[in-house]
């Protein structure tokens, strides 16, 4: 199964070449150990990519926030202040790792890992590029149930947050965790439903198939008139799923100190921080792949996998900039408003859109309308 | 249901309105002053750290008397009329409250509120600032003093000579 994925194959051939230099045949290592080894290498690559991108996002966030508030943002450390996040990271790493006396030590230490691991694991099924020759997505785990795997894996993040809130032995943490549970779980319904529409149109749960289907400017966003609304639902539900403002109720600092990570400090806190940005990236990547053609730019990229990767990265960065823009514009919603939006607006709207898009797709409405317009 | 969707539509409308405003601000020039590199423009009547025109000062200590917190310390001697042997003109900025009351009574208009404003220091003693541009007697006045002293010495010498001459006469006589 792992041999099927492009990234694993690349790692395999790299190892083969490296061992070949020493004169060792790769077949000496048993298959089971090799699978674990390749998996670890891929996970390390993903993790370091995410950590590096988080540094960029924090810089972007602070710069954009600054400009929105007519300030400069960080501009002292390094060129344009790019190394500010690195300096902050070192500061964070040097901080004392405090575990409160009343805390459940095991759960307290384990929660940030679960939270981060859940999101990073989901990146395995995201195709960062597409190989047009073989028709494969360049991804770690090329499985047919891609989006299903992703939505299931990011649901584990809620468990980690509840663990963090409960283990902290702090009422603010617990409140934040309960809010997180209520919010994220309820917004998974519109998120799942809105993802269902592109899945239905493409006819596959795999994100690589979605990319292949949209090559040449045939983006899902304009396949049917329902898609822009579906994308809106997806984006709002995604924002709520990432706990980003205006849905940052789990860590509402004016009410709950810092919510579920009130008691966390140092490296453990930075895990929660990274998780937030990583899940933003994930939502942006899924949005770009399912609605904006993934690595496609109206066929201009040709067959180049690197160009497709760069185009996808640019799309993700634009999406994240919009998220930052939203965060520094809109005030936080009230708890009941969040629940109302989720259950009374987005969920029924998503059902309507699913129904409408299904009927539209089944009746071949695009062809009919185009044919009607072309009729002399 | 309809009511909820109406509210939702209104919420989206207002959110878009707000986002347009922030987008406009995003493309504005930041108002930040890069402080240590760029200095702010200071108003004409700003009350910063004093500056003293020592050549005009007559060491009358009216400013020290006027000071409500007694933060001005002046010590000087008058070796000759109109000449000042400066020992001390300190202002303790740990005490000073920048009320400008020292500047009004000055008969020669020699103490002013300046434009310097960043004077944080590591110790309290460093906050006491010496306002003197020179200590002792000024170089210009030093010449005068020397001239006077020389004149005096000459006079004395002359007198001594006279006395000597007179004494010599007496002895001789």
Short description:
With 376 residues, chain A is an all-alpha fold. Chain A has helices at 6-22, 31-68, 84-94, 105-122, 146-154, 156-167, 171-202, 207-213, 227-241, 253-256, 266-291, 305-327, 335-362, 365-374; strands at residues 129-131, 136-138.
β-strand amount of chain B: 5-15%
The helix fraction of chain B, in percent, is 25-40%
- C-alpha geometry of chain B: rod-shaped
The helicity of chain A comes to 55-70%
Query: How many E strands of chain A?
Result: 2
Proportion of strand residues of chain A:
under 5%
What Rg of chain B, in angstroms, do the CA atoms define? 33 Å
Count of alpha/pi helices of chain B: 3
N- and C-termini, Cα separation of chain A: 53 Å
Order of helices and strands of chain A: HHHHEEHHHHHHHHHH
Radius of gyration of chain A: 22 Å
> What general form of chain A does the structure show?
globular
Description:
- The complex is a heterodimer of chains A (376) and B (173).
- Chain A has helices at 6-22, 31-68, 84-94, 105-122, 146-154, 156-167, 171-202, 207-213, 227-241, 253-256, 266-291, 305-327, 335-362, 365-374; strands spanning 129-131, 136-138.
- In chain A, strands 1-2 form a two-stranded antiparallel ribbon.
- Chain A is mainly α and 376 residues long.
- Chain A is globular.
- Chain B has helices at residues 2-26, 62-66, 139-172, and strands at residues 50-52, 72-77, 85-92, 111-113, 128-130.
- In chain B, the strands form two sheets. Chain B has a three-stranded antiparallel beta sheet with strand order 2-3-5, with no helix packed on it. Chain B has a two-stranded antiparallel ribbon with strand order 1-4.
- The relative contact order of chain B is 0.13.
- Chain A binds chain B through residues 64, 66-72, 325-326, 328-330, 340-341, 344-345, 348-349, and chain B through 1, 4-5, 8, 15, 18-19, 21-23, 25-28, 30-32, 34.
């Amino acid at each position: 199964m792992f041999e099927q994925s492009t990234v694993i194959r690349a790692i395999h051939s790299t190892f083969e070449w490296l061992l070949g230099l020493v004169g060792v045949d790769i077949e000496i290592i048993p298959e089971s150990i090799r699978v674990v080894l390749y998996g670890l290498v891929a996970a390390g690559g993903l993790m370091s990519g995410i950590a590096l991108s988080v540094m960029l996002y924090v810089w972007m966030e602070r710069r954009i926030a600054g400009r929105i508030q007519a300030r400069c943002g960080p501009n002292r450390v390094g060129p344009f202040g790019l190394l500010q996040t690195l300096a902050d990271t070192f500061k964070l790493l040097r901080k004392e790792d405090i575990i409160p006396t009343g805390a459940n030590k095991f759960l307290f230490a384990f929660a940030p890992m679960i939270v981060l691991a859940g999101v990073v694991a989901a990146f395995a099924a995201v195709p960062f590029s597409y190989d047009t020759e073989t028709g494969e997505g360049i991804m770690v785990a090329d499985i047919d149930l891609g989006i299903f795997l992703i939505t299931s894996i990011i649901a584990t993040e809620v468990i980690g947050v509840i663990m963090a809130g409960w283990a902290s032995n702090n009422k603010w943490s617990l409140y934040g965790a309960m809010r997180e549970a209520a919010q994220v779980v309820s917004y998974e319904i519109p998120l799942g439903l809105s993802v269902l529409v592109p899945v239905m149109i493409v006819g596959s749960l795999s994100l690589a198939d979605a990319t292949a289907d949209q090559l040449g400017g045939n983006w899902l966003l304009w396949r049917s008139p329902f898609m822009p609304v579906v994308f809106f639902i997806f984006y709002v539900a995604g924002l709520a799923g990432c706990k980003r403002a205006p849905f940052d109720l789990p860590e509402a600092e004016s009410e709950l100190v810092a919510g579920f990570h009130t008691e966390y400090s140092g490296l453990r806190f930075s895990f929660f921080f990274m998780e937030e940005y990583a899940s933003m990236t994930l939502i942006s990547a899924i949005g770009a792949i399912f609605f904006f053609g993934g690595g496609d730019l109206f066929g201009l990229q040709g067959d180049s996998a690197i160009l497709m990767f760069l185009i996808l990265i640019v799309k993700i960065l634009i999406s994240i900039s919009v998220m930052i823009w939203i965060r520094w514009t809109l005030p936080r919603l009230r708890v009941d408003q969040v629940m109302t939006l989720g259950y009374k607006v987005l969920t029924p709207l998503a059902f309507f859109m699913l129904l409408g898009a299904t009927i539209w797709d089944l009746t071949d409405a695009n062809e009919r309308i185009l044919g009607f317009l072309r009729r002399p | 249901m309809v009511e909820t969707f109406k509210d939702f539509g209104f919420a989206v409308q207002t959110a878009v309105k707000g986002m347009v405003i922030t987008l406009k601000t995003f493309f504005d020039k930041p108002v930040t002053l890069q402080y240590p590199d760029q200095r702010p423009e200071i108003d004409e009547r700003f009350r910063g750290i004093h500056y003293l025109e020592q050549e005009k000062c007559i060491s009358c200590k009216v400013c020290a008397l006027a000071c409500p917190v007694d933060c001005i310390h002046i010590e000087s001697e008058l070796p000759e009329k109109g000449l000042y042997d400066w020992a001390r003109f300190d202002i303790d900025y740990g005490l000073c409250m920048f009320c400008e009351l020292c500047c009004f009574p000055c008969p020669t208009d020699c103490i002013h509120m300046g434009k310097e404003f960043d004077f944080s220091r590591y110790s309290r003693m460093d906050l006491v600032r010496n306002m003197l541009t020179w200590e002792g007697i000024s170089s210009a006045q030093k010449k005068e003093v020397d001239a006077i002293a020389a004149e005096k010495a000459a006079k004395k010498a002359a007198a001594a000579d006279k006395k000597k001459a007179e004494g010599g006469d007496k002895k001789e006589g």
